[in-house]
Amino acid sequence: MNKKQKIILIVCVTIAILAAVFYFFVYNPKDIFGKNCQTAYNLSHYEYSDGFKIDIPENSCFVNTCCMICHRFRTHENYDSLNAKLQKIVDNYNSNNSDRQISYTIEKHLWYNAYTIGY
């Protein structure tokens, strides 16, 4: 290998390492339970295993199932906007369904906000 090829190889390897670090530590880090996104940030609806369907804020990703009735999601949307959207979704759902009421919690993180929706 000549000097130019070595420099190109070093630059390419450095870029690949920086991309991996960004993805795993900034864009999709593990949470306190060791879980990260299992889908891309492209969800706007979610269906529970029992057929229960719910809208969720756009550009969310599925993280994990806490139990049969709670599911965790993640988004890069800011806290206030996410809180307003979730409140609207919950209020709309609860006003139209008396047999099952849903609620949510939000955890604020540096690079993302995680939220749990359950019934």
List the helices and strands and how they pair.
Layout: H1 3-27, E1 43-47, E2 53-67, E3 70-75, H2 79-96, E4 103-108, E5 113-118
Antiparallel strand pairs: 1-2, 2-3, 3-5, 4-5
Q: Could you characterize what this model shows?
A:
With 119 residues, this protein is of the alpha+beta class. The chain has 2 domains: 1-29; 31-118, no CATH class. It is built from 2 helices and 5 strands; from the N terminus they run αβββαββ. The longest helix has 25 residues, at 3-27. The radius of gyration is 19 Å and the shape is elongated.
What tags apply to this protein structure?
119 residues, alpha+beta, 2 domains, 5-stranded antiparallel sheet, 2 helices, 5 strands, 36% helix, elongated
Q: Bin the strand percentage.
A: 25-35%
Helix/sheet category: alpha+beta
Q: Strand order across the biggest sheet? A: 1-2-3-5-4
Mean pLDDT: 87
Domain count, please report it: 2
Question: Which spans of ≥5 residues are poorly predicted at pLDDT below 50?
Answer: none
- Helical fraction equals 25-40%
The N- to C-terminal Cα distance equals: 62 Å
Tally of helical runs = 2
The biggest sheet amounts to:
5 strands, antiparallel
Globally, the shape reads elongated
Sequence of secondary-structure elements: HEEEHEE
Radius of gyration: 19 Å
Query: How many extended strands?
Result: 5
Q: What is this entry, summarized?
A:
The chain has 119 residues and is of the alpha+beta class.
